[in-house]
């Protein structure tokens, strides 16, 4: 029994006994495979992976934020703004580097403000980021004047539609960032602090850790990833649009919740989030193949989240 | 620095008078805004504009008054805007199908309340944190409404029904009377009834409230049901005024509603705030947005300004709490 005290000192990924999300994923895949013959084709499966990457880029930092008992409702609006900044910069300067720098810069700025509001002013995260959501949405309307930014050059579109060594670029980008987040969460001191921030903030204070800075860093990471996702989003829709990613933070939160990261206990699981992202991707793809309108897909995702949260609540009450 | 010599027993009496002081500050702020706008713009003081401000404030207040009770109980309801969309579209369908504004009104109020009850059940029985449960509900409602409408618009309602949104009585818009009615009812409920006081108690300390024998779960469901019902009221007035229903009808109203409650002095941590404060908060926010409009500021700035106001209001509340 007392061995637990020892193993707790040695932080490592804690796997739930039954990864419920894996069962949901397999079940959904089986159902869709039975209903739609196209579902299991190589083309469609690769499609699901490619289309899930943007969501994965948002859901991974969202996992870390939720692990600190936080939330970032501004992510979709920040992604939209970053995508517009990227599109405007690339169209006017023809420089991918400048565009990406602008997008990531916007993300970092919003992440800093979010983190500062949450850590220094101690404003509850859901309302602080609801406020910055409004700010980012307003700025998106202002910089774009409510219009789409068109004339995206070919080299930017290539980022999403191109292939390197036979593998679609988005999958490579997604895999690289997944590896990065895995290392960050499980093999660095920063990762240890993030896991401690959710469960036991007082212990960190007593240990002399400046956790406020860690919290700001976590939100800035979220903003920066929104900037990276803006690159793929802009390349994918071949435009900058003032409402392009409104609400996308919800899909990210859905994936995190499905993946088994707890909103109340701060323990998270980056592989679970990957499974959650794939589950949302499979759900959307399967419903698409069945010609279900996207509005109904939104409702289905919302219902799935509520169920996932309910199950999470059940698990936490049964320690 | 030094220890306060206040005794715990004196707090409940101070509590109310502090609320009154807070509201007086906010009324002064609203008055100051009026003076500034009257000086800076020519059209602010026109009867038309004043009535316009009151009518817009009334729409915001319907939504914000229900939300006030939720925030008093220590929760948050992010689904109110999406609830307006669904309720308005359902009410519009029923009016079109039956030709009866009464049945349409019942449909709008009923669907709003039903959504609220679902929120309450999720929060009270399933123990899902309110902001995330109602956020999930937001997207469920959003999806359902868009699916149901399929991009269509329903417009053209009987004149009798449109009166509740665009009618006048003694030269004052009908929604303003409705606002004053709900203000009186809400204030009475929150301050003068046992249930209202129990909601304050739940927000201040849910564990203590439960130990005192307050049926916390039932009161929470009631609070969310109220919030949903008020979204239903707002949807009907909105519908009657616009004379058309679309899927996105209430989407932009969630953030302003939260802002109005927080400007009005309610604390996100529960147990502090008044319905009258929210009324003043709705008035202040409407004055700010109206002023921006009169000064020909692009409407794109409105979500930005509202977002900043939300954060500022919470921050000021936190400073105030730290000082006491």
Written description of the protein model:
The complex is a heterodimer of chains A (319) and B (324). Chain A has 319 residues and is an all-alpha fold. Chain A has a domain at 40-246. Chain A has helices spanning 3-9, 20-35, 42-67, 75-93, 96-119, 125-144, 154-161, 169-186, 189-199, 201-206, 211-237, 248-258, 270-289, 294-317, and strands spanning 163-164, 167-168. Chain A has a two-stranded antiparallel ribbon with strand order 1-2. In chain A, helix 3 (42-67) packs across helix 9 (189-199), helix 3 (42-67) packs across helix 12 (248-258) and helix 5 packs antiparallel against helix 11 (211-237). The radius of gyration of chain A is 20 Å and the shape is globular. The model of chain A is unreliable at 1-10 (pLDDT under 50). Chain B has 324 residues and is mostly helical. Helices cover 75% and strands 2% of the residues of chain B. In chain B, helix 2 crosses helix 12 (275-294), helix 3 runs antiparallel to helix 4 (101-124) and helix 3 crosses helix 10. Chain B starts with 10 loop residues before the first helix and ends with a helix. Chains A and B meet through helix 6, helix 12 and helix 14 of A and helix 5, helix 11 and helix 13 of B. Chain B: One of its GO terms (cellular component) is plasma membrane.
Give keywords:
heterodimer; A: 319 residues; mainly alpha; two-stranded antiparallel ribbon; 2 strands; disordered N terminus; B: 324 residues; ABC transporter involved in vitamin B12 uptake, BtuC; two-stranded antiparallel sheet; 4 strands; 75% helix
CATH class type of chain B? Mainly Alpha
Q: State which percent range the strand residues of chain A make up.
A: under 5%
What distance lies between the first and last C-alpha atoms of chain A, to the nearest angstrom? 15 Å
**In percent, how helical is the residue content of chain A?**
over 70%
Look at the helices and sheets of chain B and give the structural class: mainly alpha
Q: What is the mean predicted local confidence, pLDDT of chain A? A: 84
Q: How many individual β-strands of chain B?
A: 4
In total, how many beta strands of chain A? 2
Mean pLDDT of chain B: 85
Q: What is the strand arrangement across the widest sheet of chain B?
A: 1-4
What is the third-level CATH name, the topology of chain B?
ABC transporter involved in vitamin B12 uptake, BtuC
Shape of chain A: globular
- Structural class by secondary-structure content of chain A: mainly alpha
Stretches of chain A where pLDDT is under 50 for at least 5 consecutive residues are 1-10
Reported for the largest beta sheet of chain B, the result is:
2 strands, antiparallel
């Amino acid at each position: 029994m007392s061995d637990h005290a020892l193993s707790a000192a040695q932080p490592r990924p804690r796997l739930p006994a039954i990864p419920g999300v894996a069962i949901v994923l397999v079940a959904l895949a089986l159902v869709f495979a039975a209903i739609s013959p196209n579902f299991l084709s190589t083309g469609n499966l690769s499609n699901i992976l490619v289309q899930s990457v943007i969501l994965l880029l948002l859901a991974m930092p969202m996992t870390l934020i939720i692990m600190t008992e936080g939330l970032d409702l501004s992510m979709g609006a920040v992604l939209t703004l970053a995508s517009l900044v990227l599109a405007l910069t690339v169209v006017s300067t023809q420089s991918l580097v400048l565009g990406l720098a602008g997008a990531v810069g916007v993300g970092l700025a919003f992440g800093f403000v979010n983190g500062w509001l949450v850590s220094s002013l101690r404003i509850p995260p859901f309302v602080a980021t609801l406020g910055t959501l409004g700010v980012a949405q307003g700025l998106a309307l202002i910089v774009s004047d409510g219009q789409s930014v068109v004339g995206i050059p070919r080299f930017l579109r290539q980022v999403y539609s191109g292939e390197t060594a036979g593998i679609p670029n988005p999958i490579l980008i997604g895999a690289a960032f997944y590896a990065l987040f895995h290392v960050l969460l499980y093999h660095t001191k920063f990762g240890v602090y993030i896991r401690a921030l959710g469960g036991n903030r007082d212990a960190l204070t007593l240990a002399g850790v400046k956790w406020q800075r860690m919290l700001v860093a976590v939100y800035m990471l979220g903003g920066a990833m929104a900037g990276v996702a803006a690159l793929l989003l802009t390349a994918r829709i071949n435009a900058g649009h003032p409402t392009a990613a409104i609400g996308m933070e919800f899909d990210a939160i859905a994936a995190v919740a499905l993946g088994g990261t707890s909103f109340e206990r701060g323990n998270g699981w980056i592989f679970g989030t990957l499974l959650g992202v794939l589950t949302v991707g499979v759900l959307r793809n399967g419903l698409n193949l069945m010609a279900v309108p996207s509005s109904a897909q939104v409702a289905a995702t919302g219902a799935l989240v509520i169920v996932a949260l309910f199950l999470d609540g059940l698990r936490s009450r049964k320690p | 620095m030094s220890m306060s010599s206040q005794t715990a027993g004196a707090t409940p009496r101070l509590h109310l008078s502090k609320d009154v002081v807070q509201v007086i500050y906010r009324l002064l702020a609203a008055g100051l805004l009026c003076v500034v706008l009257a000086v800076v713009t020519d059209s602010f003081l026109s009867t038309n504009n004043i009535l316009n401000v009151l009518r817009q404030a009334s729409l915001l207040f319907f939504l914000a008054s229900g939300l006030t009770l939720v925030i008093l109980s220590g929760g948050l309801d992010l689904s109110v805007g999406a609830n307006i969309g669904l309720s308005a579209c359902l009410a519009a369908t029923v009016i079109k199908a039956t030709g009866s504004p009464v049945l349409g009104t019942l449909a709008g109020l009923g669907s709003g309340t039903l959504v609220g009850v679902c929120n309450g059940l999720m929060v009270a029985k399933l123990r899902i944190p309110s902001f995330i449960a109602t956020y999930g509900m937001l997207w469920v409602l959003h999806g359902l409404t868009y699916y149901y409408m399929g991009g269509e618009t329903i417009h053209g309602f009987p004149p009798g029904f449109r009166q509740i949104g665009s009618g006048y009585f003694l030269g004052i818009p009908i929604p303003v009377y409705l606002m004053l009615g709900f203000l009186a009812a809400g204030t009475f409920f929150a301050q003068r009834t046992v249930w209202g006081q129990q909601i304050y108690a739940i927000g201040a300390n849910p564990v203590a409230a439960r130990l005192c024998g307050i049926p916390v779960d039932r009161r929470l469901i009631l609070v969310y049901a109220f919030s949903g019902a008020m979204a239903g009221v707002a949807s009907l007035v909105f519908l009657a005024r616009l004379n058309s229903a679309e899927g996105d009808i209430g989407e932009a109203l969630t953030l302003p509603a939260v802002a109005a409650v927080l400007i009005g002095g309610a604390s996100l941590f529960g147990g502090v705030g008044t319905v009258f404060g929210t009324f003043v908060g709705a008035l202040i926010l409407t004055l700010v947005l109206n002023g921006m409009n009169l000064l020909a500021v692009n409407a794109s700035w409105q979500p930005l300004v509202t977002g900043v106001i939300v954060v500022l209001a919470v921050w000021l509340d936190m400073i105030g709490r730290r000082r006491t």
